[in-house]
């Protein structure tokens, strides 16, 4: 009895009062309909059918789970096979309906990320916009939900995180006199130092930059800091919330000494989450992420910056049309995005060219080299130029992706990788129509990704549930039968780099990472190999991991079928179906496990080099006085040379190999335990498996119908889409040229 109680407490959470109630209640029909408002009627119908399938499947699983729990609740010594069944049911019941799709808008200062989000959600000036200057100061996430109001949560650095930043800021600003009594190199305010002064003055007031770390710890901040470190805002209207949000999101001017409490705590802000009411434009389940700059000086914010990029399944590289060619910042952003495809969850990447209405017509006509037809208007010139840019940049981007990513990567199959948009023209329509601004095309892009993910998720969910119910019902039946910037201020920037162990992230300058620069030649060699190891699809050289797991899955399923035939399972089709389905579920779950480990393996080289060079960085960071910059560089050069001679790269290689070995061992252990228990369950003879189990015949019958419905839903979606396309082709063109 004690064992039973312990199992139920650990595995089944009976402490909840609603343990025998359905774990996830079905939403009201009106709520469900509201969530699909962003989709056209054809897609709404498909989504509703998938939602209905999922909801009914979850209810069937919940009923089965309740029956099994009630049948074993007071019994001792529950066999592992029954525990396995119950835990698998519970895991499927509590499985999230759909993980959010994070779409990262990744661009440099003034590229128009906030303006683009405002246009997509059709809320002009909702996020702060300010021409060419830095406007958005932190990561901002925008999504729609089931709330009735506009809501926002501002997340602040914890007390410990701020103390860490404060120590780094004061160390960076620390000035001493050299041995000869001279102040160190005419200290000019480089980017790093200016930002440090600015933050301290904003948080503590004028004069804070001259105080020590200990003095500032005792100083009282100018603004009130909530103990929860979270500020919640609500408003009935978008404009009202925008006004409240502005001081938290907008980068504060360095020459401004405002007095509002919001601006005083601005240096503490690390993330802002904005939730819109049910939207006709952005479907629930999609999160637009405005990712500013190239990182942050604070290590926690910088880590969040990297993690935010890595969790995005879609990345839009945002670039101003005037900076698209030859810009260093643009190339850096593209490279960082392609790294996210290597190390993170990113599966789709697109280049979004903003401000595409900008064009000086006389200059364009003078340089125009394409076509013989005369350009009649500004609109025609803009559309022609934009089409040329899309063709050129699409080819360039695809070629770069082919060099970096496996040949079967999904992003390489996309016909469109480049979009030319204009948020300004979306509102004004002085030159372009709404369709020609391509804002609607980006909304369609978002809907397509969500619909595709919903379809794949529900199909996998229903198929897994059917295999599990099939086996559960078969055991129940058996039991019943048998019983019944340059050198200016460079030393300050270098000091900041050393303080952060080789990394300096600024909102205005390009990201500096000495560790990455040192390992870049190695990455250039291993990127193709790394891509092949973690590629999907058919293996070509035997090195791909996922295809090997798929091949192992097929081999194991075939072996199970052979064993089943030898053991007389041909009359027990439920066992074969269960084994095949459960093997798919177990091995399919490995892909997410591998993706989570992939980033750690990929970054192990730079992490190893950073750890080895840490003493050099710490030594260099302590240098002050005359010619500090030259002495810091000398310490770093000697430190790198010494570490290389002592085997720094060899150690990095060993650490990466160790990470791969850990992944290998983890895969083996994960598969071994699950499959062993599964085989025990499937191989159990009817007699002696357990006492009489609950009758789940009705649940099995309903699950069988739901499984058959999957094909009908897919076929209906195809028919509706075909009919919609036919009607669109037959209808006359709806958009005429706007005024010129």
UniProtKB/TrEMBL annotation:
One of its GO terms (cellular component) is nuclear speck. GO terms for molecular function: GTP binding; GTPase activity. It is found in: Nucleus speckle. The keyword Coiled coil applies. It comes from the Eukaryota. Signal peptide: none annotated. It holds the Pfam family Dynamin_N. InterPro entries: Dynamin_N, Nuclear_GTPase_SLIP-GC, P-loop_NTPase. Residues 103-322 form the Dynamin N-terminal domain. Keywords: Coiled coil, GTP-binding, Hydrolase, Nucleotide-binding, Nucleus. Nuclear GTPase found in germinal center B-cells, where it may inhibit function of the activation-induced cytidine deaminase AICDA. Reduces somatic hypermutation in B-cells which may enhance genome stability. This is Nuclear GTPase SLIP-GC. It comes from Bos indicus x Bos taurus.
């Amino acid at each position: 009895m004690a064992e039973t109680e312990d199992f139920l407490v650990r595995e089944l959470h009976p402490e909840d009062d609603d343990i025998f109630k359905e774990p996830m209640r079905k939403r009201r029909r009106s709520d469900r309909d509201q969530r699909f408002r962003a989709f056209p009627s054809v897609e709404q119908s498909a989504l509703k059918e998938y939602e209905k399938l999922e909801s009914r499947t979850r209810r069937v699983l919940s009923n089965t789970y309740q029956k099994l729990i009630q049948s074993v609740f007071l019994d001792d010594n529950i066999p592992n096979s029954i525990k396995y069944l119950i835990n698998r049911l519970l895991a499927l019941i509590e499985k999230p309906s759909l993980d959010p799709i994070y779409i990262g808008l990744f661009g440099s200062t003034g590229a128009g990320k906030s303006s683009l989000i405002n246009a997509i959600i059709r809320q002009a000036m909702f996020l702060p916009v300010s021409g060419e200057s830095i406007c958005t100061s932190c990561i901002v996430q925008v999504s729609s939900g089931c709330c009735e109001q506009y809501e926002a949560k501002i997340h602040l650095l914890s007390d410990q995180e701020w103390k860490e930043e404060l120590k780094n800021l004061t160390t960076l600003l620390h000035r001493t006199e050299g041995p000869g009594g001279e102040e160190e190199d005419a200290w000019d305010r480089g980017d790093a130092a200016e930002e440090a002064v600015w933050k301290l003055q904003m948080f503590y007031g004028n004069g804070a930059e001259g105080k020590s770390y200990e003095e500032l710890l005792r100083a009282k901040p100018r603004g009130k800091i909530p103990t929860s470190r979270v500020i919640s805002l609500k408003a009935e209207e978008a404009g009202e919330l925008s006004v409240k949000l502005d001081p938290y999101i907008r980068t504060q001017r360095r020459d401004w000494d405002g007095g509002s409490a919001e601006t005083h705590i601005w240096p503490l802000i690390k993330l802002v989450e904005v939730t819109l009411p049910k939207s006709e434009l952005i479907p629930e389940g999609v999160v637009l992420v405005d990712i500013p700059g190239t990182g942050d000086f604070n290590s926690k914010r910088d880590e969040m910056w990297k993690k935010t990029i890595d969790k995005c399944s879609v990345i839009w590289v945002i670039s101003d049309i005037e900076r698209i060619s030859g810009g260093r910042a643009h190339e850096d952003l593209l490279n960082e995005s392609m790294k996210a495809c290597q190390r993170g969850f990113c599966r789709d990447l697109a280049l979004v060219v903003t401000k595409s209405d900008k064009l000086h017509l006389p200059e364009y006509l003078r340089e125009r080299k394409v076509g013989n037809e005369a350009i009649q208007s500004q609109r025609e010139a803009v559309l022609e130029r934009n089409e040329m840019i899309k063709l050129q940049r699409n080819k360039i981007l695809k070629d770069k992706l082919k060099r970096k990513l496996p040949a079967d990567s999904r992003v390489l199959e996309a016909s469109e990788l480049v979009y030319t948009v204009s948020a300004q023209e979306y509102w004004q329509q002085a030159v372009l129509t709404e369709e020609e601004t391509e804002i609607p095309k980006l909304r369609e892009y978002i809907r397509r990704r969500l619909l595709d993910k919903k379809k794949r998720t529900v199909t996998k969910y229903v198929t897994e549930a059917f295999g599990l119910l099939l086996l559960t019902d078969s055991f129940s039946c058996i039991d019943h039968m048998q019983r019944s910037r340059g050198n200016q201020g460079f030393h300050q920037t270098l000091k900041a780099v050393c303080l952060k162990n080789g990394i300096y992230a600024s909102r205005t300058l390009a990201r500096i990472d000495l560790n990455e620069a040192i390992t870049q030649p190695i990455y250039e060699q291993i990127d193709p190999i790394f891509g092949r190891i973690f590629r999907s699809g058919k293996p070509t050289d035997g090195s791909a991991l996922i295809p090997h797991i798929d091949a192992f899955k097929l081999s194991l399923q075939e072996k199970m079928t052979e064993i089943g035939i030898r053991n007389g399972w041909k009359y027990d089709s439920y066992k074969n179906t269960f084994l095949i389905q459960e093997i798919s579920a177990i091995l399919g779950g490995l892909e997410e496990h591998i993706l989570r480990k992939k980033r750690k393996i990929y970054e192990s080289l730079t992490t190893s080099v950073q750890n080895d060079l840490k003493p050099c960085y710490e030594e260099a960071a302590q240098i002050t006085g005359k010619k500090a910059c030259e002495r810091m560089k000398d310490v770093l050069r000697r430190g790198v040379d010494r570490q290389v001679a002592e085997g720094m790269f060899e150690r990095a290689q060993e650490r990466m190999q160790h990470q791969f070995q850990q992944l290998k061992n983890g895969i083996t252990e994960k598969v071994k335990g699950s499959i062993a228990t599964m085989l025990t369950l499937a191989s159990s003879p009817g007699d002696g498996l357990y006492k009489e189990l609950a009758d789940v015949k009705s649940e099995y019958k309903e699950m069988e119908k739901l499984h058959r419905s999957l094909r009908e839903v897919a076929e209906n979606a195809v028919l509706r889409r075909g009919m919609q396309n036919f009607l669109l082709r037959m209808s006359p063109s709806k958009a005429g040229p706007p005024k010129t």
